[in-house]
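Reviewer comment 2.1 asked that we show a complete input and output for one of the modelled complexes. We chose the flavin-adenine dinucleotide case, as it is the one discussed in the main text.
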Amino acid sequence: MKQIFDCLIVGAGVVGASIFNKLTLVGKKCLLIDKASDVATGASKANSGLVHAGYDPVPGSLKAEMNVRGNKLMPKICKRLGVPLKKCGALVVGDDKERVENLYSRGLENGVSVEVWDRTKIEEKIPDINKQISVALYARDSYIVSPYLLTICLTEEGILNGGQVSLEEDVESITKSGDLFAVKTQKGTYLAKNIINSAGAGYNEIAKLIGAEQYPLELRRGEYFVFDKSYKLNVPCTIFPLPTKLGKGVLITPTVDGNFLVGPTSEENDGKTDTTAVGLASIKEKSKNILDTIDFRQAIRQFAGVRVISGDDFIIEKSKKVEGVINLAGICSPGLSSAPAIAEKVLKLLKIPNKEFKDRKQITPYVMFKDMSKAEQKKRLAEDKNYGEIVCKCEKITKGDLLFVLNRPLKISSVDGIKRRTNAGMGRCQSGFCFTKVIQAISDTRKIPYASVKKENRGSEVAVGTMREVNHD
Ligand SMILES: Cc1cc2nc3c(=O)[nH]c(=O)nc-3n(C[C@H](O)[C@H](O)[C@H](O)COP(=O)(O)OP(=O)(O)OC[C@H]3O[C@@H](n4cnc5c(N)ncnc54)[C@H](O)[C@@H]3O)c2cc1C
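Response of the prediction step:
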């Protein structure tokens, strides 16, 4: 007899993965599907990586409620999953005391711990701060996290505890017969009692197939610069300008991996994630209002992510049109911070008690060879010679690390998937040295031809064939 899932979740970003994780931990049979070749390839891979304290969203909004609750839940979740989370605090700087005080009142109303700082106090923390800055809001409960590692680990814990994941799924139709949905994809048909639409930018596409509510979605690209780890900016916390209607503005932040990010822009676009000369130039210009000493020659990469916005607030609701459907639309910032709280909210909407089973299986944390203790390194080397072969010189990643990642509960076969899990390719040479070695490890482990290994999604195969096979006529 065909398996019937309690919930089928469409979209494996941080929101879908959080819901999948929560539902499996309370004992529900879940299937998480995504059209991409890995989890966290949408907005969840390209953002600022901040778990916001929650001073910014309008009091009483879903954004405020989810952000503040998510911020409280995040430390425990990251600890359990072994995902690095660093409490570095956030400073919102400007020269307008009234606007800072308004933000302070909003923070208090949202139940967030906030302080107003004068120039002297700001300089103690950030000696190089722009001379024009006279006042700031400080929120100590702001964290930095790797958004994709969090998504990956949430998914893997769900798999270890009975959940199923299927990637590269193209949803062709969704029909309902009695209480059951039949979700037909190119791989087969899945039966489920509930559908959760967390497809981000693809929300309306899925809503249309279900016959559920569709919403106008505005897409806004955010571009960034990433700085080399060797570049030491004296910035121990995240620094924002005062927020505007378009968002939180161009910020400067350390990352958990030891780099710095400067960005994002906010421009309306069609969902493309390429960077632009205009966008990058505007980051350079705007960041000067915070720090005018940044050496942009130390930037090693640019990237962009796309926000999916629907009006002023998140949409998290039971569909009124189709029983058994949960709509999650317009989950823009602070969606990463809010994800654990959104999962709790979905549980409530489905009237499922929030009681996680006790004997859950724990995932092995992502610890690379370079970060192990000397004793652990010695043990690993004795067991497996692959830990003695460096494949990424910039990030000091070994072949043993690649194999560890390739043999995890979530099976991925893309170069970028390896990069998100190990950092191989994220250093100064930007994969000049490790690219071919990573492809080879994927090809050997998955037993697939070298030329069919993908950089990311279908159609991104890294090679067309071997030199001798290529016809130059
Ligand atoms: C520039 C930028 C900066 C941000 N900074 C922060 C921050 O610092 N802190 C914070 O809290 N939030 C931040 N956010 C917001 C945060 O990134 C998002 O709210 C969050 O990642 C949304 O997660 P999601 O799972 O809803 O969407 P996504 O991560 O986009 O996931 C949706 C998934 O659905 C899949 N999908 C789409 N269509 C289909 C389909 N038809 N079939 C199957 N699968 C489909 C996609 O492949 C994708 O994997 C930022 C966003 C951006 C863009």
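The chain has three domains: 1-85+145-215+310-366, 90-140+218-307, 369-463. We note this here for comparison with the apo prediction described in Section 3.2.
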